[in-house]
Amino acid sequence: MPTARPAAVSLDIWGTLLASDPDFKPARNEMLRVALAPGVAADVFDAAMRQADRDVDDRCVRDGIDIGFTGRIEATLRALELPVSPLVERTPELYDAQQRLALAHPPRPLHVELPAAVAALRVPVVLTSNTGMLPGELMRKLLVLAGFGGYPGVFSNELGVAKPHPRMFEEACATLGVPAADVLHIGDNPDADVAGARAAGLQAELIRPDGVSTLAVLDSIVRACGASA
């Protein structure tokens, strides 16, 4: 738990601030199945999509690379031994369909008090996130719906690298206009968030993905700011 006041805060998004709406991924995966793999049973495609997503997440963290919407669907199709060529011509329409579903089933704050807790910070804030299937353009819309609008964001699909790659954290510090040593990054992944941030020269705090843990860290920052005011 930080005891000194940081000059600025970088926040991970998924597992730190937000959780996916439980209806979103089933609806998104079914949309993709109907479009690209109608002969595959719904439960089989859903399981393949979720496994591919996890496997790609692990690769992104291991190698510091960004693999987004198209790459994750390609991984699913290959796992199912299906051709990927239909995806190429249909990517724009499928992305638009995903966006509609995401806006209809937006992610939720992990804790109802988190938006107010972030707003109460008396230091600059940036949101620093690996984007996965949901690129920064869409994430900005979803963050507004969840109560986290107005904060600058550093998104992996826009940089072409993913945490723990140092460029993610360098861009976060540049966005904040604060030296790395004075920035505290908060996240739930020990490799992507904590090891990555520290390797880039930032302070780092590991939280549990339950919302309560994030609230406790944010509260400690508010108290530190009050003590140093």
Automatic annotation (TrEMBL):
Gene3D superfamilies: 1.10.150.400, HAD superfamily/HAD-like. One of its GO terms (molecular function) is hydrolase activity. Its cofactor is Mg(2+). Coiled coil: none annotated. InterPro entries: HAD-like_hydrolase, HAD-like_sf, HAD-SF_hydro_IA, HAD_sf. It comes from the Bacteria. The keyword Ligase does not apply. It holds the Pfam family Hydrolase. Keywords: Hydrolase, Magnesium. GO terms for biological process: small molecule metabolic process. PANTHER family: 5-AMINO-6-(5-PHOSPHO-D-RIBITYLAMINO)URACIL PHOSPHATASE YIGB, N-ACYLNEURAMINATE-9-PHOSPHATASE. NCBIfam families: HAD-SF-IA-v1. This is Putative hydrolase of the HAD superfamily.
